[in-house]
Each structure stands twice: as C-alpha cells, then as structure tokens.
Amino acid sequence: QVLLVESGGGLVQAGGSLRLSCEVTGTVFFRQAMRWYRQAPGKEREWVASITSDKVAFYADSVKGRFTIARDNAENTVHLQMNSLKPEDTAIYYCNTVSTITGGDHWGQGTQVTVST
After folding, report:
1. Which percentage of the chain shows pLDDT scores above 90?
2. Backbone torsion region of residue 11, taken as left when φ is above 0, otherwise alpha when ψ lies between -120 and 50, otherwise beta
3. Closest residue by Cα to residue 34 from 48, 44, 46, 45
4. What burial class does residue 98 get, using C-beta atoms within 10 Å of its C-beta: 0-12 exposed, 13-18 middle, 19+ buried?
C-alpha cells in the first residue's frame, strides 16, 4: 500500500518561511515523480511544484523564486521549502505521486499552512 504522510505545516507571518515534508512508503520512491498541490478555502486544488526522478524541478508561476522542491531518496522524502510566504499561500498542502508500478494516483492527508498579515 502506498502511503504519503505530510508534515511541517503551521502558522507563520507574511515574509516568513516553512518547510514541508512528505514521507512515502510502499513504492519504489526513487523512480517516482513527486508533486505538491494546494487547496485554499473555496478554491480548487492547484498544482504547486513537481520534481522528477532525475531531480528536475518545475514550479507554478505563483511560487517560482520563493519555493524550492527537493527530494531525499535515501529517506524516501520530498520537501517543499517555502520562503517569502504571502497570505495568498494559505492553503492545505498535499503531496502526490502516480505509481510507476500500478498507475495509481496517491495523495497524502494534507498539512495546513496559514500565513498571517
């Protein structure tokens, strides 16, 4: 069973930083592309960042230059370093992967990030 467990969310003032982590079990992590999404209240879930198995990163325009996605294959973990946070970054952040073995789409339970003014 593929499990994704996020951690690291919290309350931070605008301009501050947070580092999210997502630990993955039940799959061959180093082969998986990993993604972060977020969902703000009353809005649809949106893609934030991705990292390939080759550690190539991609970002939504809204976070480019402020967020950094990275992976630690030894720890089966993907991180999202979020700097210069803005109130509009407030959302539940979800970790996601599509299994290269089964094709299954797997999500974590989410972690709340709240940025105050």
Report:
1. 92
2. beta
3. 48
4. middle
- Residue 105 pLDDT greater than 90, yes or no: yes
Residues in Cβ contact with 65 at an 8 Å cutoff, skipping those fewer than 6 apart:
none
Greatest CA span in the chain, whole angstroms?
44
Per-residue tokens: 76: 């089966």
**pLDDT one-digit tens code per residue, 73-96:** 999 999 999 999 999 999 999 999
Tens of pLDDT, residues 23-46:
999 888 999 999 999 999 999 999
**Backbone torsion region of residue 55, taken as left when φ is above 0, otherwise alpha when ψ lies between -120 and 50, otherwise beta:** left
Q: What single letter denotes the amino acid at residue 30?
A: F
Q: Are strands 10-13 and 77-82 parallel, antiparallel or unpaired?
A: unpaired
Here the tokens at position 59 are 């970002």
Residue 50: count other Cβ atoms within 10 Å of its Cβ: 19
